[in-house]
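S., here's the first fold you wanted:
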Amino acid sequence: MAFAFCRLYNEFAWAYDRVSYLVSRGEWRRWQRTALPSLRGPRILEIGFGTGDLLSEMRSQGYICYGVELSPSMLRIAKRKGVKALLCRARAQDMPFQDEVFDSLVSTFPSSFILDPRAQREMVRVLAPGGHLVVVNEGRLLGRDPWSRFLNWALEVTSGDGSPVQLCEALEGTGLELQQEEERNERSRVRVIVGIKEEEEDGTR
């Protein structure tokens, strides 16, 4: 299953939007949007932006948006969609940005890079004092029917070591103040982890 999802980020990226809609029973975009209330603006960087839908939504709300993505296939799709953000192909472990330049970083359902200490150091480096790291990393369907149970199993398999508990443990050494939030409706629940970078003592950046 994990191998199949890896292919979905690369040679089968053209099917990503359709597959994410199906495996979440139409909840995927709502899950992504749960990041929005935790953003601190105006400069936002999305790490692993996929096909760019959340970037477009943030841009429509007035944020100044940037995005990094390792998959060239995803990058091409986002550009074809006309995403109005500065997009670049880069690893989270080596981002081409100056120190403390972004007010928020956001990543929805990130791959294993989120647990890499090198990526975590980079995220803290580019995040401004008082800035927010917002990670949406667990969505679950609440139905008890066999299809919902199978989809939840598939989502759990592909999340690897990225459960909220494991991610919080991995981020503890970054110096960020961590908070966990959950949003649910009658169909599903989704969890969001927010890491807040300490402000400078005089309150300035």
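And the second, which I think is the more interesting of the pair:
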Amino acid sequence: MARVMTIHGYPPDAVRADYARAGLGLGLCGLPLAVIDLPLAITVVLALAVGLFAFYGLRIAAQQSMNLRATDDAIQSSGWRRVRLAWGELSSVSLAYYSIRREGGEGWMQLRLTGKGGTLRIESTLDGFDAIARKAIRSAADNGLELDRTTRANLHLLGLSVPGEEDA
């Protein structure tokens, strides 16, 4: 039986703004630390902020370096953190939407897949996100997993049908 493989990654355009935010935060918080003698309390606050922005930048670098390989049998990440999940062994599938604005509209989705191999979190800026979400939902149905209300609603936002709902 032929194993179809697709390779997915985060395009540079998808992470460019994140890198800019991390760099801006590092500059705005780190520059005063480097050039001004500040009171201890302010130094501590700015140093913590520098640490957070550095962590954020490293997280973006890890995300960009990750590639996902999806086959008929499994999905596997490469990069800093390697995870392999067999589709037939998924124990949890959820799809969350994170909005930038209170009214909604601008934001991103995150698909969370859990199984014996660990957990994969995949953001909607990934090339081929819809295809991976579609395969994950089919696998969840095949595995008899119940999807929560939020996941089902977010799948509808993506234009994906939820197996078994047409029967209800």
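Why I say that: The mean pLDDT is 89. The first helix runs from residue 12 to 35.

Talk tomorrow,
H.
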